[in-house]
Amino acid sequence: MNSPCDLPNEISKIHILGIGGTAMAGLAGLFSAIGKEVRGSDSQAPYPPMGTLLAELGIPVSHPYSKANLDYKPDLAVIGNVIRKTNEEAMAVLEQGIPYMSMPEALRHFFLRGKTSVVVSGTHGKTTTTSLVAHLLAEHNHDPGFLVGGIPLNFCRNFRFGGGRFFVVEGDEYDTAFFDKTPKFWHYEPKAGIITNIEYDHADIYKDLGQIVGVFREFARLLPKGAPLVIPHGDKVVEEATKGSDAKIVTFGLNEGDFCAKDIRLDEAGSVFDLYVRGERYGTFRLPLLGLHNLKNCLAAVALVHQIIEPVRLREALLTFKGVKKRQEVVGSV
Asked: For the whole prediction, is pTM greater than 0.90?
């Protein structure tokens, strides 16, 4: 494939194949935020919320896929992992010699270089945890960039360019593109990370849990020596995946872990808990999200943020977290 080294010096027009996907639409928004002319294509008109987002941004979307969608001669094509190598439009990109990249490559090349990349991974809880990390950093005036696989209600969009040094990415282990079968999160050059949990998933590309543990093991090894990697306390699968990593392992959990919640009280508004940091009581906090699973997501985010900034407004920041669209979202009452 054409590597970033093969890119033209001036890139003003960018075409995104598979633009209706959550990450691809968010990437389109990031490109738009830095002044690029962005267009895209998909098999059909994107539906909400991504279709709404693209319309608000004024990004034209062509459908279905066709080589005619490239007649405006883009400088770069970004090809989503939903695109097969037999796709008419993707084939035209290759035939016409248009430089192309995957979504993870484009994110790294244009938005992660020079930033502190914070990557949130795991089978469950990635979107909520990523959104909360971004929210906590924003509430402490760090103006983070982010790309999330859902719509954080505090930001109303799943992307932000950000002017600060942090860029928070929801990273998953699915493959990158038809021309790159490595996991997406291997591309993000993490300087800090979270693994929420690891279970067997993506049965179409992984034969068993062992293969998934293997790709997480490589992810953990990408972190620089001493960089924080937050994992669940006592999780044998995750512990196996992080063996051999030079990262600084920080654990979270309910009643146990470096960052743990004790004296947990659940009510109709969420949870109240005492936070302990390495055995010392840190204070009483409220999380306005329901369920112990969300409390675990919260602990992972809090543990990570504690490693990279001094979270002096943690209590207030947690209270103002609104969650993620379509995840326990209150839409009305009867």
From this structure: yes
